[in-house]
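Supplementary Note 3. Input sequence used for the single-chain structure prediction.
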Amino acid sequence: MQAQICMEKNRRSIRPLTAGLLAGALALACAFAPPAMAQDDKMTPIAAPAQPNAIVLDTGALPGATVQESWHRQYGSVFARNVTVATLTPFLPPKGKATGAAVIVAPGGGFRTLSMNNEGWDVARALADKGVAAFVLKYRLNQTPADMPAFERAMAEMFSGAAKPRPQQDPAVELAPQIADARAAFALVRSRAAEWGVDRDRIGMAGFSAGAMLTLSTALYGQDAKPAFIANIYGPLSPVTPPAGAPPLFVALAADDPFFANAGYGLVDSWRAAKRPVEFHLYEQGGHGFGMYPKTTTSTGWFDGFTRWLGMHGYLQRKS
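The predicted structure, written as discrete structure tokens, is reproduced below.
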């Protein structure tokens, strides 16, 4: 029920994304809600799970943060909220299977929460099984109320239109902490590339919803990050100006996505106009937030399509 209410309010209140990367998009705090799992939509607070392999990044604590990190369960998955210190968790393939390619994985959640299972750990495990080293980025988030009822009220206010609108900012400014976390993630993987069996020049990034916004922003404004390839999984497709030598781009979106399916495909057109490699999968059904959830729709095939695309570009084979 919560997911259905959230989506209906978004249909009424979110303007099409026509003015740039973040126009209207940063308000998508319920972007992690897959309608197929609505029977499990209650947010249940849980203790922070063990993260023994998580490495703290050197970007420091979120400036001005007063609420500390907390976790909850929803849709049969786990989510992190109020992340104030970024971490990176490696998922490495067996040495005999490793191809040397790597992916920084950025979960989504409207920059207010992170879908750590469905769009993070599960994706990373599946990539490692293909021989690709994967690193889940738990990036810093916008602060939300500490207790769950207050958080839910704040979300309801935001989607009702009662919250005061903020002026649109340059994505490089709006997402400065998150872009810094992504840059630190790339720097860390490159610094330990020999230890982790990674080729420094074959590190890409894949993001989901808000994580897709961060992935694209990292490619556009991330300076030294320079991902070798990027994947935008149900993120916004507003037109941009690709940088010179823009990385190959993989895009997956459902035609019934309530947030991003009706604003055109300008991002794909931008890459094509720049004569840069791009692949676009538009699934008839799947909604938003399908990630690694098993569903009866063809959107479940996005991961197979993505790994086939990686293989086409040589990332599933060890570089000779």
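The first helix runs from residue 2 to 13. The CA atoms of residues 2 and 169 lie 29 Å apart.
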